[in-house]
Design brief:
Strands 1, 2, 3, 4, 5, 6 and 7 form a seven-stranded mixed sheet that branches. 29% of the residues lie in helices and 26% in strands. The longest helix has 12 residues. By secondary structure, it is of the alpha+beta class. The termini are far apart. It is built from five helices and seven strands.
Length: 164
């Protein structure tokens, strides 16, 4: 991995190639508040950016956080999970900065998680409803990675009303 300076907070992972050059997917355990805020803000996830302390607690308490960075160390995207690492893995967040959409970054992040949690009975995530523009894009993306809706798996999912 020439050209990379891996700091102690990062565990080197798999490499992917985005159209702009090599991308490193790595586990991170220490998070720069401003950098994480900028990434969540770039995709307009106000539910996170409206309470940055809570966002940082969520990152710290995740089972796994992986990032995608370019050769200069710029954060391109990240994904995080909540898991018992035995039966269930829930993909909590997958974000890619809009400047890097449609370059394979999100795919590399999710493929890394699929491999990491292949032993789990359930590998789940939630996304926007397909009646929304973002939902249509997300559904197509996750389907291209082999995901099925709960209904297609003859399952149901339930949730309480959103707390704002």
């Amino acid at each position: 991995m020439s050209g990379w300076i891996i700091k102690a907070r990062r565990t080197p992972g798999v490499r992917a190639v985005d159209q702009g050059g090599p991308v490193l997917i790595a586990r991170e355990t220490v998070f720069d508040r401003d950098e994480m805020f900028a990434l969540y803000d770039s995709v307009d996830w106000d539910g996170y950016t409206s309470d940055v302390d809570r966002m940082m607690r969520g990152l710290a308490n995740s089972h796994l956080v992986i990032t995608a960075r370019d050769e200069s160390g710029e954060l391109l995207g990240m994904a995080r999970t909540i898991s018992d690492d035995a039966a269930v893995c829930y993909v909590q967040d997958v974000l890619v900065h809009p400047r890097h959409h449609r370059r394979g970054v999100g795919r590399a992040l999710v493929e890394h998680l699929k491999e990491r949690y292949a032993h789990c009975r359930f590998f789940l995530l939630s996304t926007d409803h397909e009646s929304t523009e973002e939902g249509r894009r997300n559904h197509a993306f996750y389907r291209s990675l082999g995901f099925l809706s709960y209904e297609e798996k003859e399952m149901s999912a339930f949730g309480l009303p959103r707390v704002r």
